[in-house]
Amino acid sequence: MERTTLHESNILLRIYRFYLTGFRKMTLGRTLWKVIIIKLIIMFAVLKVFFFPDFLHTHFTTDKERADYVLGQITQPARSNDFIRR
Amino acid sequence: MIENFDLTMVNWARAQFALTAMYHWIFVPLTLGLTWIIAFYHTIYVKTGNEEWKYLTKFWMKLFGINFAIGVATGIILEFEFGTNWSNYSWMVGDIFGAPLAIEGIIAFFLEATFFAVMFFGWNRVSKRFHLFSTWMVAVGSNMSAVWILVANAWMQHPVGQAFNPDTARFEMQNFFEVAFSPVAVSKFTHTTSSSMLLASLFIISVSSWFLLKNRHIQMARRSIIVASIFGLLSSAFCGFTGDEAAFEVAKHQPMKLAAIEGLYDGETNAGLVAMGMMNPAKQVGDDLDAFTFEIRLPALLSLLANRELGTFVPGINDLVYGNEQENIMGVTQKIEKGKIAVGQLAAYKNAKNDGAEDAAIAALTLFNEHKEYLGYGFLDTPEKAVPPVSTSFYSFHIMVALGTLFPLVFLAFLFFTWKDTLMEKRWLLGPGVFMFFLGLVAQEAGWVVAEVGRQPWAIQGLLPVTVARSNLTVGTVQTTFFMFLALFTILLIAEIKIMTKQISIGPEGN
């Protein structure tokens, strides 16, 4: 049992070292990771939060309300449009 | 009914979606195709043990990494847009799209991500065979991601395996396999991936041509060209075959799109395929003007393409809009009548349920079910609204096909002169060769314009027009985010071009 744990930890350690060395040796990769991280921050911390709220989740709390609203949109759009203009 | 919608907002939302999708599609096909070619280069290295192939594989892997890093997550913005700009649509298709997109996230993304690090970090650190296996798994994983996105897209073009639930206002999946293996999904996936392989081959031709013009890395460029040309020729053949299959499916399920991409207003027996032409900008649906100011037609080929049989009838836009009794084609006017019954009975069902009138609800539901396949037409106010932008569809399709015909000739020329060992002297070929990748991108984008503009006005073919699919937002909100994306995408594109061109100019020495 002890031997197995030791063996597994060695494998995990090897995987950890594999990634660590790989990341440390990166040259161009560092620039690319910076681009990826900046891009993800802009997307998720700025665009998603401030500019792209989920419309139905923002305006309604239950799926029943959402279903009723969408059903209203496709059957009586004129009345449903009043909702957002209020 | 439809006049109550703010069309300006819909058009801005469509423009934003088009911008995002087209930008996203600059990176995706190169990623999809390049993974396979890199896997082939890597295999040759492992099989031969020749270090030159390792050197070459690492160089193309580096360029692949740049493209992947800049393009990664740009598709997520499309999902943001679904929730914000297209909330009715998102709600209605959530049950259908949930499964394919979840499978994409769980299987394909993790498969890709797991082996990605091994592919890049694994040189001399894992066994050669495991390293090669990882490279192949990155190719498989990347393309698996595409499967599920394209299944979702195909369902919008040919909504099978679903049933509309009038209580939840959602299309619910009835048969996963029917959705996943619909002929439209299969042809869309095979055509997209084969065209991606073609684009990646063109990318290698372009970069290698530049090296040869600069008298740099001649051996590496020649080797790269040989594999890319063979790969490109095979991809071109497969792309042509799958394109034919895709057109056949379009003829069956989206005849209006086929008529639009061919500029065919009046249906014909033994219809000819337009090889080249210029559309008459004054032409309108239902008038007597000629559709073209000039055109060159290949006799009977459109009938063969659409029906796999000569002498058959191909409906034109006028036949589909106004109907054609002789050919047993129902016109849009009739479909609108049926669609309005479906919409009306859906409203009646909803009201009856709210009032607790069970019998009235059952009666309304029965009538709705009889007309539900025309639901989307109930939102159109005139039959002409069922016609997509014809000129855009026509020119996009013909640009794509013309370029698709040119590319195999380019691959053949590169292969021939490399084999004759005279490629270095053929500067007339190497010069244009540098620009082939950009022509490949034009063909890729044109292909998506055909697919997406050609299916207008539908978000879901025949069931939901884009005007009903959208959210109730102000125009200003969508305009703001449109220009934000434009700025963000421009910056990212400049970053990609700068990093990519710098690494190409450094060459494989930078490995």
Topology of this protein?
The complex is a heterodimer of chains A (86) and B (511).
Chain A: H1 2-25, H2 28-51, H3 55-59, H4 63-75, H5 77-85
Helix pairs in contact in A: 4-5
Chain B: H1 7-48, H2 51-71, H3 76-85, H4 87-121, H5 128-157, E1 162-165, E2 170-173, H6 176-180, H7 183-213, H8 218-253, H9 255-261, E3 268-269, E4 273-279, E5 292-298, H10 301-307, E6 313-314, H11 317-322, H12 332-355, H13 358-371, H14 390-419, H15 427-453, E7 458-460, E8 464-465, H16 466-469, H17 475-506
Antiparallel strand pairs in B: 1-2, 3-6, 4-5, 7-8
Helix pairs in contact in B: 1-2, 1-3, 1-5, 1-7, 1-15, 1-17, 2-17, 3-4, 4-5, 5-7, 7-8, 7-15, 8-9, 8-14, 9-14, 12-13, 14-15
Would you write up a description of this structure?
- The complex is a heterodimer of chains A (86) and B (511).
- With 86 residues, chain A is mainly alpha-helical.
- Helix content of chain A is 87%, strand content 0%.
- Chain A folds into 2 domains: 1-39; 53-86, no CATH class.
- Chain A is built from 5 helices and no strands.
- Chain B has one domain (2-254, 388-510).
- Chain B has helices spanning 7-48, 51-71, 76-85, 87-121, 128-157, 176-180, 183-213, 218-253, 255-261, 301-307, 317-322, 332-355, 358-371, 390-419, 427-453, 466-469, 475-506; strands at residues 162-165, 170-173, 268-269, 273-279, 292-298, 313-314, 458-460, 464-465.
- Mean pLDDT of chain B is 91; it is low at 1-6.
- The chains are: A mainly alpha (86), B mainly alpha (511).
- At the A-B interface, α1, α2, α3, α4 and α5 of A face α2, α3, α4, α12 and α17 of B.
